[in-house]
Please model this.
Amino acid sequence: MPREYLEALAGLLGCSTDDLVPRSATRFGDVPLPPQPYFAQPYPLQENFTGRIHERRMLTEWLTEDKQPVLALVALGGMGKSSLAWAWLQHNVLGLPLPGMSDPSVEVSVCQVPETARPQGVLWWSFYEIEASFATFLHRALTYVSSGAVDPRSMSTYEKIQTLITLLQRHYFLLILDGFERELRAYASTASVYQGNTVREDIHGNFRVCIDPHEGNFLRWLAAGPLLSKVLVTTRLLPRELDGLAGCRREALSTLNPEDVLAFLHAQGVHGTRAEIHAICGPYGDHPLALRLLAGLVAHDPARPGDIAVATNYSLLPEMVQREHHILTQAYDALRPSLQQLLSHLATFRSVVDFETAKAVSPFGAEGDLKAALRELAERGLLFFDRERQRYDLHPVVRQYAYARLPQREAVHARLVEYFQVSGKGLFEVLPDAPRKIRALFVGPASDSLSQVESLEDIAPVIELCHHMIHAKQFKRALGIYYNHLASLLYHRLGAYQTVIELLQGFFEDDETSLPQLESSWQSWLLDALAHAYSASGYPQRAVQLLEASIQIDQERGDKESLATALWNLAVQQQVLGRLSASEQSLQESIKLCRDIHDAFNEAKAYQYFALLRAYQGMFEGAFRHLDTSLSLFKAVDARASEGAVWAYRSLCDILAGEIPAALEAALHARELADIGHYERDVIRAEWLLGLASVRMAYQEDGQRSAAFLQEAELHLREALHRCRRIDMVDYEADLLLAWARLHHAGGEKQRAKEYAAEALAIANRSAFRVLRADICNLLARLEREDSNWRGMMSLAEAALRDATCDGHPYSYVSALEEAKQLLHEVKQLQ
Model:
């Protein structure tokens, strides 16, 4: 490592150069050190990459001349973003040969990075890989960029980002972040591997927000510059955090130009006149994925292989998506039946497969035939093959289409059940006679083998087994696996709500209105479990509909325990929707049933939520009395993990009552207890309350004490928001964003406070969170008052008043109602 680099690094870290002991000159763990390039997840480039001279020249000019440190290369899936970035990096930046690629010398000269301008190190990171998280990226990148002199293990995430940014400011590296859309909300679910170009948008662009707030700040700070380093981001969507930033250059990747199309098809073994090729390919928009599939179709035509004329009778469609599907139809139909079967069978897997796994669904008896078939599918552009890792994958568009063409799905999924049954050997499938509703269900004895689960990857084979059982219509077996081994883990510990929804929807024939073919008690259970996943995902009204259907079944069966559970669950949804009178009725009915059957656990839960209802009503004496009752009931049944939720609700009630020191103490206790069960919801809720209480303390202090509370609040809120977005837990996200807005307001950052409050309001409006919306509108009204915008202040205060009124006295959200009235009184005096 150069002496001047060590001196700069020592100055950055506040130590001497003797304290920096570089590791191996070539590797630190599994991270190579500069000047070696670091390809964390090498890209499996398909053969015959062609052209893109204009785009590669643009990238070279950006790297060597442009002052903007960040370049976002944005395009739909299948346009070749990753291929372009990888080919440019290997061929033009590093000067390495690429198999199957040849450039005329004149083209090489305009794209090539001069040796004197090459970065001192390059890092390629692909977020398409499951294990390639932002946290892992930070650790590896910091190790690489510091040449192993920095040990990230002892640093906080904030410290890692700051150190990495500083190193990138002072030294010339090239970082390529491939597939960044996987870090955005629109593509962050476990089903992203199956997802095409269609995303669920919103007018505020929240679908483009980074799921990790640290990551959003990292992008902002990169684009804030000045950086000696450059960062290339390839993505389907521009991260919202980069909107309008001067340090970020946005380039849309267009289709291939006509000469590239010609060269590519010739390289693929397609021949014909220039005019013929352009006439046939033009209507496809020269879309790379479509052209690769078209080339595979023509090159393997049984009558006239390679003759472009065989495509002249195709019915060309006008829209790009239709073009893709038309080409897919032709490419799929051109396959012999055994290849069609293999491709569709591979599409049933949720992720990449190795050769041994592919054998499980192979229609071929001999391994040699399967290998030949896989090679042909890859040659036709229908399958990706990662030579280094020996794994096969499908483009999401191809996966969607091939699965849709899968015949006899039930039988295929049944075969996969047998395959995954091997890894799931010993799993308990027997269903209990009386199922416990999901909010009252915790990890039990049957899940002891999974007690150390920390991520979805840890239980991926079990999820796959359950998924294939459902699609094989082995509903009772699937429910046994799900109830005994997945239900509590997915909902409580991991907060994997989208995975819950994806799995449970498979039990219903059409939609949730058509009940599954199971006993009525399990129909009720499924409706309840699905309702809670919808609730956590920000759909309380849908949750109410499902819970009401569950309650009707419980009433018909006379199942008082399930009914009591469903009623307090329903009361929770009614509260967030502002239906406080109905919530009280549901809670009262639940408590009566619990007492009739001596169900202390569910009675404790009902009192816990009754306390919050009373706090909303301003009846704090009753609220704290209910919390005491709830806590004593949980202690009586030795439900220590559930006591943390009571302390969390005590903290929230203290905040509503203005008892902030007590709220902070209760939140600390809630956070300690959240570690007992490792339930993600409990952790997020406790971190949120710690942050919110700290912000409220900062408002009451001044000087250094206020700054210390704000710093503490930021740590807790950042952690909570990161965890919340990672699992798409929408029912707490708006609360967290509101707390973020209060944090920035307390710190004097009024504009940022408005931005976060507006984002919270967008979620509250979409989800009809009426009670929370009152708080958001009140804060926005105060912010408008500080800007002397009296009209805006009045409009927002009036909106807060309407929401806080709820069902009218005594079923109003009193603290928000009084605040709105005060704001309206102030604005009338000022006008």
The CA atoms of residues 255 and 286 lie 5 Å apart.
